[in-house]
């Protein structure tokens, strides 16, 4: 952004204001809108994998006999992959825009310790988890890496408010929460809760968890953004997005939310075919990828 501003100011100062308005101003607006990375990438792994990695790494020190020299055993492939993932995250955030990776989703979260495991492993991998402001040497601001617990089963949805209260009131977590401007994202799982308790129970428990999480967030002075892991089909929490937004509990909406868009519905919702006009005047689509042949009117 600063380099583009210098370029624009230089053009204006050297009799090129029209070039600045035509070429640089649109680019500046795009950078202000979505940075130089366009989109962000979420990383996701199951809480059981993190717990196993932490246990494996910590076991060597606790099992080492006193007054003896011993090498730690080789890491298992699973644990090595977890650490390599965090090293890659650190490398990407240093090489490219730090804002390109901001969230780390923890599947199957059941406790506050699941969040702390991710923070510990991230630091082992060289990831700066707390947010940092822009540096004096022109270094970009880094939003850090926020763990996003995903509550999937009926039991976990019921326990989610108590788990987040424990985390948000923890002294260990407080500095990180402060660096993130007391913003926190939490994900609610539709598909697995549907498998666990059925469609009606899943919908009702998600509704209650949504409302209770916002109540706890207000008590803890946290701005909460819920990430709804909706599936494509109705049985996995799918359906019209606008109705899902209107169905949010009263007084439980902070102005922003995230919703997954499953691959199974991308073709149906976003593929734009080019129907041809037949002699009878009807639009006839023969595109094999079109979700609605033969009378497709997506492009009209």
Please, could you describe this protein's structure?
With 300 residues, the chain is an alpha/beta fold. The protein has helices at residues 2-13, 17-34, 47-63, 77-95, 112-124, 154-168, 174-179, 191-197, 199-219, 241-246, 263-270; strands spanning 43-46, 103-107, 146-151, 183-189, 223-229, 257-259, 276-277, 283-284. It has eleven helices and eight strands. A six-stranded parallel β-sheet has the order 1-2-3-4-5-6. Strands 7-8 form a two-stranded antiparallel ribbon. Strand 7 (276-277) and strand 8 (283-284) form a beta hairpin. The relative contact order is 0.07.
The multimeric state of the shown protein is single chain
Radius of gyration: 24 Å
Largest sheet: 6 strands, parallel
Distance linking N and C termini: 39 Å
Mean pLDDT: 84
User: Major sheet: order of its strands?
Assistant: 1-2-3-4-5-6
Unreliable residue stretches: none
Shape: globular
């Amino acid at each position: 952004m600063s380099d583009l501003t210098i370029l624009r100011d230089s053009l204006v100062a050297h009799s090129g204001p029209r070039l600045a308005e035509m070429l640089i101003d649109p680019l500046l607006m795009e950078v202000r809108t979505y940075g130089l990375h366009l989109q962000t990438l979420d990383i996701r792994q199951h809480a059981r994998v993190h717990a196993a990695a932490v246990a494996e790494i910590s076991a060597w020190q606790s099992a080492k006999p006193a007054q003896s020299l011993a090498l730690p055993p080789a890491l298992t492939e699973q644990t090595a992959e977890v650490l390599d993932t965090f090293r890659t995250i650190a490398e990407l955030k240093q090489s490219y825009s730090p804002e390109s990776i901001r969230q780390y989703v923890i599947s199957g979260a059941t406790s506050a310790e699941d969040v702390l495991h991710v923070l510990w492993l991230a630091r082992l991998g060289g990831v700066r988890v707390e947010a940092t402001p822009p540096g004096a040497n022109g270094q970009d601001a880094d939003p850090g890496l926020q763990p996003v617990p995903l509550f999937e089963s009926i039991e976990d949805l019921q326990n989610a408010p108590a788990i987040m209260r424990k985390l948000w009131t923890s002294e260990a977590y407080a500095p990180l929460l402060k660096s993130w401007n007391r913003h926190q994202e939490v994900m609610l799982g539709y598909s697995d809760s549907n498998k666990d308790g059925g469609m009606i129970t899943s919908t009702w428990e998600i509704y209650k968890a949504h409302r209770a999480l916002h109540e706890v967030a207000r008590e803890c002075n946290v701005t909460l953004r819920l990430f709804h892991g909706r599936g494509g089909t109705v049985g996995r929490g799918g359906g019209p997005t606008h109705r899902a937004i209107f169905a949010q509990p009263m007084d439980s909406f902070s102005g922003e939310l995230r919703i997954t868009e499953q691959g199974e519905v991308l073709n149906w919702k976003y593929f734009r075919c080019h129907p041809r006009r037949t002699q009878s005047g009807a639009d006839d689509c023969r595109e094999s990828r079109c979700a609605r042949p033969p009378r497709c009117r997506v492009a009209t």
